[in-house]
Amino acid sequence: MRPFRVLLADDHAMFRQGVRRLLEKIPGVEVVGEAGDGLELLKLLQRVTPHLVVLDLSMPRLRGVEALYELKSACPAAKVLVLTMHKEREYLYHALKAGVAGFLVKEDAVEELEAAVQALRQGKKYFSPRIAPEMQEMLADEYQGRGGGVEEVLTLREKQVLKLIAEGRSSKEIADLLFISPRTVHNHRANILRKLRLKRITDLVRYAVEKGLTG
User: Fold this and answer.
1) Distances (CA, A) of 6 to 35, 95, 100, 112
2) What is the distance between the alpha carbons of residues 38 and 65, in angstroms, rounded to a whole number?
3) Which residues on neighbouring strands pair with residue 6, listed in sequence order?
4) Which domain holds residue 154?
5) Whole-angstrom Cα distance, residue 107 to residue 85?
6) Final residue of a domain: which of 143, 166, 193?
7) Alpha carbons 7 and 53: distance in angstroms, whole number
């Protein structure tokens, strides 16, 4: 039987090593690469074609959520198992929207990682029981037509940019802090205004204050 190739992306080296050891204990699984951030992950995908990417959502340079969309474009056949410390609905919402096959909380990795990998290997999905309440709440909102709320229309990167704009940062400062170009900051700002149906930067600042995004 051909090995099930897994690529691991997490910025914490010690945690990544521990997860690798867990993965290598699963029969038929081969870890074909490791990445410490989103950009490194995308470079790896130019050289290896994994069946599964185990992905953290909080990494430097290109964050995991943004890397999800790039990953899907670079390697559409690869399944994604999110392995994160975040249990908040916002992270789950964006992960599901990006089409992940599984979502696992880091504190449950030792007990659940093998079950998650085996489920995805068999073409199934896997979501940690720990996030069941958030899953049920999201499904109920969809059924009742409430959706995720206006603020959930924004990506995590757009929320970062919005927060920094509200703090009075210039485009160059935001670009330096987020390791992106000023042009990308401009594009994010335009997208935020469009999505929130606002016209001016002062409106963005007022919105951020009202939503508590400046703390």
Assistant:
1) 12, 19, 15, 16
2) 9
3) 31, 52
4) 150-210
5) 7
6) 143
7) 5
